[in-house]
């Protein structure tokens, strides 16, 4: 049975999803949070199903949480990294996908350094495909877990002001979050140096600030982003020291946000570059650990909804 509230075959991005579809995924994920906190974490919803995590880039959180998510739903989960696969012998992305497709898998989770690679691959296989992050394009499950984390703390997304700070230019996390927060009725501010904000980004329905102090005034949520050195061609910042001075989150800058503003970071963090340890580890304000916990629940929800059309599924979360 297909969930009538979520009709997509793949999850390639947040762009194109409506508020009801996002709410459906968040509601289902909320249920899995409770399951994950219980002693018996395992369900047999996906017994006999196969999930393959195909990662062409490094990952700690996304790969591990998809593995846990699949196993907690009873699926067989296989992890493949480009480093240990025949990609190293010259096999193309498409040939790799066709090879896996011949093994009758049910869900393929893909992370790839090139924007658009996951969509291309989804057109070649029979199973559901989930984008685990493609280049600077999208990271949909990260935006969903961020939204679930915010919704659980603040009780809503609509009407909140969310500041996304740092290397927006190279960030798929920022792109997916902008789409999601806009669709769900939040106001988005982007804060960063001109070199790290895409030109014309205002067209995405956001406010842009190059002065972090002004941008943080009165915000409800602060999302810090990592400087993505691996995607940079050339120098985008004068020095780490100067970057931290102007765009690193510390207690002094945090004081400009609302008194109950929360701090988020998708990880991995570069302490002392974009965020001070004092604020990252602030148990009252930092939601960074909750984000990781919500990541497993959100990925369970995604595996759940994308397999509801398969035979012998009860369709219930
Ligand atoms: N946030 C995130 O995608 O982390 P990983 O690179 O560790 O998966």
Automatic annotation (TrEMBL):
InterPro entries tied to this protein: Asp/Orn_carbamoyltranf_P-bd, Asp/Orn_carbamoylTrfase, Asp/Orn_carbamoylTrfase_sf, Asp_carbamoyltransf, Asp_carbamoyltransf_Asp/Orn-bd
Pfam families in the cross-refs: OTCace, OTCace_N
Residues given in the record as carbamoyl phosphate binding sites: 61-62, 111, 139, 142, 267-268
Listed pathway(s): Pyrimidine metabolism; UMP biosynthesis via de novo pathway; (S)-dihydroorotate from bicarbonate: step 2/3
Superkingdom of the source species: Bacteria
Keyword Zinc: no
PROSITE patterns: CARBAMOYLTRANSFERASE
Domain Aspartate/ornithine carbamoyltransferase Asp/Orn-binding: 159-305
Catalytic activity: carbamoyl phosphate + L-aspartate = N-carbamoyl-L-aspartate + phosphate + H(+)
Domain Aspartate/ornithine carbamoyltransferase carbamoyl-P binding stretches: 9-151
CC terms in the record's Gene Ontology section: cytosol
Alphabetic keyword roster: Pyrimidine biosynthesis, Transferase
EC number: 2.1.3.2
PANTHER family with a match to the protein in the record: ASPARTATE CARBAMOYLTRANSFERASE, ORNITHINE CARBAMOYLTRANSFERASE, MITOCHONDRIAL
Quaternary structure note: Heterododecamer (2C3:3R2) of six catalytic PyrB chains organized as two trimers (C3), and six regulatory PyrI chains organized as three dimers (R2).
Protein name, per record: Aspartate carbamoyltransferase
């Amino acid at each position: 049975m297909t969930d009538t509230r979520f009709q997509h075959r793949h999850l390639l991005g947040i762009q194109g999803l409506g508020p009801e579809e996002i709410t459906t995924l968040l509601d289902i994920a909320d249920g899995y949070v409770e399951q994950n906190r219980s002693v018996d974490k395992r369900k047999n919803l996906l017994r006999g199903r196969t999930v393959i995590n195909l990662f062409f880039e490094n990952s700690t959180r996304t790969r591990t949480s998809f593995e846990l998510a699949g196993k907690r739903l009873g699926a067989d989960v296989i992890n493949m990294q480009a480093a240990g696969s025949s990609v190293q012998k010259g096999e193309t992305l498409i040939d790799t996908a066709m090879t896996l497709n011949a093994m009758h898998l049910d869900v393929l989770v893909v992370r790839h350094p090139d924007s658009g690679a996951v969509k291309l691959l989804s057109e070649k296989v029979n199973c559901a495909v989930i984008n685990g992050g493609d280049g600077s394009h999208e990271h949909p499950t990260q935006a969903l877990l961020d939204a679930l984390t915010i919704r659980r703390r603040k009780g809503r997304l609509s009407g909140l002001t969310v500041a996304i700070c740092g290397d927006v230019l190279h960030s798929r996390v920022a792109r997916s979050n902008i789409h999601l927060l806009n669709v769900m009725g939040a106001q988005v501010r982007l804060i960063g140096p001109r070199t790290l904000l895409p030109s014309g980004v205002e067209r995405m329905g956001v406010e842009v600030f190059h002065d972090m102090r002004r941008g943080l005034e009165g915000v409800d949520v602060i999302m810090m982003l990592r400087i993505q050195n691996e995607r940079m061609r050339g120098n985008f910042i004068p020095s780490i020291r100067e970057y931290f001075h102007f765009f690193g989150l510390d207690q002094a800058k945090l004081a400009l946000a609302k008194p109950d503003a929360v701090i988020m970071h998708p990880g991995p963090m570069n302490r002392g570059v974009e965020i001070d340890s004092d604020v990252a580890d602030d148990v009252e304000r930092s939601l960074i650990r909750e984000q990781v916990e919500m990541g497993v629940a959100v990925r369970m929800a995604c595996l759940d909804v994308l397999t509801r059309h398969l035979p012998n599924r009860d369709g219930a979360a």
